[in-house]
Amino acid sequence: MSTKKTFSPIPRGRTLIASSAIQRRVRELGARIRSHYKGRNPVLLGLMNGALFFLADLLRTLPASYEVRCASVRSYSGKASTGKILGLSEIQGDFAEREVVLIDDVLDTGLTLAEVRKRLLILGAKRVEICVFLRKRKRRTCAVRPRWVGFDIADEFVIGYGLDYNGLYRGIKSVRVME
């Protein structure tokens, strides 16, 4: 039995955020983060794999002196959150007295960001701020307040710009609502 993924065309759905709007907003977020951390060097922790494109584009707008780390953390299977965080124990290292910016693709239930933030504080982080590409307008399981938000969207399942459906469609340059 093969577990190999087969080619799948882009699923039907509408474009929610165009590539040009994404790039413009990422530059604005970069300027705000640079201003906030002027004279300081935070650690940027990108949550993979969803934040891959957002983190890469954001890094191009920030000082090269910022330390960058990535963690493979997930709670989704298909279109729904499982309610369980996988990969949390992989977040290790020296965060003692460091300022950390968590970079994530979507603020949905809030569970992943809340648990990762808690983990960083246990590891000694001085302060943890959150930057999300998308924030869904919905009731959250966990109270999470990002400092920086790319776009607020309705509670719809989206793909593209790093967001996937079972590992597919991350490379779409825009954000699309998946039917």
What are the defining features of this structure?
179 residues, alpha/beta, Rossmann fold, 5-stranded parallel sheet, 3-stranded antiparallel sheet, 10 strands, 31% strand
Describe this structure in words.
The protein is α/β, with parallel strands linked by helices. It has a domain of 117 residues: Rossmann fold (3-Layer(aba) Sandwich), CATH 3.40.50. Helix content is 21%, strand content 31%. It has 3 helices and 10 strands; from the N terminus they run E-H-E-H-E-E-E-E-H-E-E-E-E. The strands form 3 sheets. The protein has a 5-stranded parallel beta sheet. It has a 3-stranded antiparallel beta sheet with strand order 1-10-9, covered by helices on one side. Helix 3 links the parallel strand 6 and strand 7. The model has no long low-confidence stretch (mean pLDDT 91).
Sum this structure up briefly.
The chain has 179 residues and is an alpha/beta fold. The protein contains three helices and ten strands. It has a domain at 21-71 and 88-153: Rossmann fold, CATH 3.40.50.
